[in-house]
Amino acid sequence: MRGKSLLGLILLLALAVAVTAADANTNCSTDNDCGVNFECRVGKCSHKGMFPLRYTDILATILFILISSMTNIAGIGGGAIYSPLVIMILDYEVTKAIYIAYVVTFGGVLSNFFINVRMRQSESRLPYINYTIAALSLPLLLSGTVVGTILNKVAPDLVILVTLVVLLVVVMKKSVVKAKQLYKQEQQNKEIETESQATNVRNDNASSKSKPVSEEEVGGLAVEGAREGLPEVRRIEEIQVVGKENENLALRAEGEATKDKALYAQIDAQEKKILPMNRVAAVVIFTCIILLLNLIKGSSKFKSILGVQICSPVYFICDTISFFLSIALFFTMKHIIRRFAAQKTAVGYSSPFKFQLTDSKVNQLAIVGFIAGVLVGFAGIGGGLVMSPLLLEIGLPPEFASKTSGFTVIFTSFLSVMIAFLSGGLEGLAIAWFLPIVGFGVYLFAGILNHLIFKYNRKSYILFALTFVVIIAIIIIPLYTILRFARGPVSYTHLTLPTIYSV
Fold this sequence. Notes:
This protein is an all-alpha fold. It contains 17 helices and two strands. 73% of the residues lie in helices and 2% in strands. A two-stranded antiparallel ribbon has the order 1-2. Strand 1 and strand 2 form a beta hairpin. The protein starts with a helix and ends in a 17-residue tail after the last helix.
């Protein structure tokens, strides 16, 4: 039944494209002669501005909030889904639709960051966003995008489309498998917890019946009687508390026995810091430099601020600088991680995080980030759609993988929004509407979903959200592509969300 409903929705959207496609540039005498997203100007139907709002604008905004909430829980920006929806519902031409998708993506991921930045793992007290992994993966993601974009220019459109669909199917299958495994484990844990609670209740009742408090104990030996009548479960709990206290004392004693107590405390604080500014600052500065290089080289969407011609020597020099700058930042971060690991070993520090950034893991991250970037540039999809599943593949828990991946999408979507705006292709009114409204809606809706997921300890729902988003992408992107080709020859690079390096 759900499958039929989803298919019906897609068919309705396809019908909307067919009905409204002819509205632009058709002859008219009044606005009533044009579609809902158009108005009559000088005898021709032209697309209206952002305001006044029509019901299609409200509908699109609501859909963006709902979809963005789901995508951000999964650690995905969702830009590859928004751009077809903008075209289908709001009737914008392709380039304008892509620019609006940038704004929606940025509003959602930025809002989700303000939710995630305050969240810590309950046992280890570690933040869910791993800024070290983000600082390692983002440079390789962007450098891989350069290579992927070059491949995109020489590959046939059909090859790119097939690659995209195959990639999405593989991601979906892996997400479903992991989601089922995690859900089964959560069910088993819940059954064990329920059985344990029932056993405690039975022991409590049995203990109370077998050792009632006598009248003499109540009258003259209240304290001693209370101790004798104490349920066995409470005694066990006291023993557990004492054991836990002894364990904590032993850990503290081990830390105090190190040669450098100050360094031990500093390392512990750094591990559990909610917002490590040194790593965040490195990513922010790197992003600003990449933005400047893109503005210098320009693209087919906007002119270079220095008049650089596309495919000129200076153009490729800017790409080369971006590539090697990304590599340099990665190796700098790798050196910092090695030094930090050596300090932890020297003072005997044991991290509460099960996923440890060993040399092999760092190398895996490099491969993951670069492959994700190549696929982003080649297939024209958002980095989060590839990055989040790949982080899961190297062993990062779902809640950490989704929130870390979402953090990296902030910077890629910021680059896209800034380039689109500075190039003049994105009107300020569209930013003024979609950015705060979608951001506020996602903050509320995604915040509620996050609260429920962690309250009921259902981390598998993060993976189910990822699967849901991928299924939507598998359906909507190829369908939209077919519709666009049916209307005439169109380059595939204009069909989905392009990367910041697209030309």
